[in-house]
Design a protein that fits this description.
This protein is of the alpha+beta class. It is 17% helix and 46% strand. It has 2 helices and 8 strands; from the N terminus they run E-H-E-E-E-E-E-E-E-H.
């Protein structure tokens, strides 16, 4: 597992913070993302970007469109997404399953 951690926001924490590495190890995998007690971890090639939970201003549940234009029968399907607004913009966690979205909202403290 590649566990080099880089902040998503320029001043979003120390890259070599031991507590973040421990948080990453204990985090829960939600499809391709990980959510820990302190941060949300987003894959970035051979490393991970993290967004500290304290830097998240707003969590919004939404949808995104999965579509295929290949072949004879193109198709499209809506899938759940979670928008994480922060002072530098917005990060969108594009998920495939509603169950994953609910679990992510619970871990972010916004469960229903």
């Amino acid at each position: 597992m590649f566990n080099k951690l880089n902040p998503l926001i320029a001043d979003g924490g120390a890259e070599n913070d031991v507590s973040l590495k421990e948080d990453f190890k204990k985090s829960v995998r939600i499809e391709k993302f990980r959510i820990g007690e302190k941060a949300v971890y987003i894959p970035a090639g051979f490393s991970w970007k993290y967004l500290l939970k304290k830097d998240i201003d707003k969590v919004i549940k939404g949808k995104w469109l999965i579509q295929s234009e290949n072949g004879v029968a193109p198709w499209a399907q809506e899938a759940p997404a979670i928008r994480l607004r922060h002072r530098s913009g917005e990060e969108i966690l594009e998920l495939e399953k509603e169950k994953s979205a609910q679990k992510a909202l619970e871990l972010l403290g916004h469960g229903e």
